[in-house]
Amino acid sequence: MIIDIHSHAYKYPNEFGTRFLSPEELIERYDMLGIDKAVLLPVVSPEIYLPQSVDEILEICKTYPDRFIPYCNVDPRALTNSNTAPLYKVLEYYKNKGCKGVGEVMPNMPLMHPMVQNLFAAAEAVELPIVYDGSDQLTGDFGLYDDPGLPQLEHTLQRFPKLKIFGHGPVFWSELGKLKTPGSRGYIFNIKGDDQVGKLPDGKIEEEGTVPILLRRYENLYCDLSDGTPTAMLRRDLEYTAKFFKEFQDRLYFGTDFCNIKSDLRPMVNFYKELLEKGYITQEIYDKVMYKNAMKLLDIKE
User: Fold this and answer.
1) How far is C-alpha 159 from the geometric centre of its chain's CA atoms?
2) Is 56 in a helix, a strand, or coil?
3) In degrees rounded to 5, what are phi and psi of residue 142?
4) What is the Cα–Cα distance from 127 to 27, expressed in whole angstroms?
5) Mean pLDDT score of the chain, rounded to an integer?
6) Which residues 6+ apart lie within 8 Å of 58 measured at CB?
7) Which of 163, 167, 182, 184 maximizes the CB count within 10 A of its CB?
8) Cα 258 to Cα 20: distance, rounded to the nearest angstrom
9) What confidence category does residue 194 fall into, taking pLDDT thresholds of 50, 70 and 90?
10) pTM of the model
11) Residue 193, pLDDT above cutoff 70
């Protein structure tokens, strides 16, 4: 079995920004890849994509209950555009409708912004895990801003010790090893705004970065393996990856971040099979990462 912890679908895909998949198109791709179930994350912030409603995700999941699991999401600026907005009421409402988590949180605001912290507090209060995407800039981008070394993530982990926080995306995974330059933490849109440029870290992991240190320090930090970034970072040094997977096997979750109909995610799925076949990870670790950890998190029965 394979469970995708992080995916997207639009009931009525549009051509603005990126062309997401419809539920039917996503299921067709999953059948080709051998993926059995997926968490669908609603896109609600407008920085890069046209927003969609949580109810659209719930409707998709109701249509295909054996394939999709709903998350809810709310922009931290919603309701009152203040840090006193009763966002917990929104999350509680959708939790009662069957949503299993919150995300993908991706407005271009500092992670420690009071309104963002209000959303994280709400997620902790209603006992829902949260996944967010990050950024290394505060203009012309999407994602919660953090500084090199991820201090804002660390303070958030300290502030909300009962909240399961999933790190995701380039800004998080680029710090698997120690950074050589801050600019290698993420991509940037070119001057026309129609393509991303930049270079993430490569080469052997000569010294551990912030991510493994935070994982040891905070039990409420989890790893979302979706999009191509973690695969690229883990391929850098397979010997280190073997140690990383062994140490953090209970907090690693396979995902795709399927958000473009042109994407070919076979290399991503095959990477984890390769780790197993070449002996870098055991069958037990493979099963945890590919579906057992997700089953436990989402309370899915075999």
Assistant:
1) 20
2) helix
3) -125, 160
4) 29
5) 94
6) 70, 94, 97, 98, 99
7) 167
8) 8
9) low
10) 0.95
11) no
Q: Return the pLDDT at 128.
A: 98
10 Å CB burial of residue 32 (0-12, 13-18, 19+) is exposed
Which alpha helices (DSSP H) does 11-132 contain, by range? Answer: 23-33, 54-63, 87-96, 114-126
In order of 6, 27, 241, 295, the CA distances from 213 in angstroms are 24, 37, 15, 26
User: Residue type for 54, please?
Assistant: V
Q: Can you give the pLDDT at residue 182?
A: 87
Mean pLDDT of 50-63: 96
Inter-helix orientation angle 210-217/238-247, to 10°: 10
- Contacts for 179 with CB less than 8 Å, ≥ 6 apart: 148, 185, 201, 209
User: Do the Cβ atoms of 164 and 220 come closer than 8 Å?
Assistant: yes
CB contact at 8 A, 90 and 124? no
Q: Give the integer Cα–Cα distance in Å for 294 and 4.
A: 8
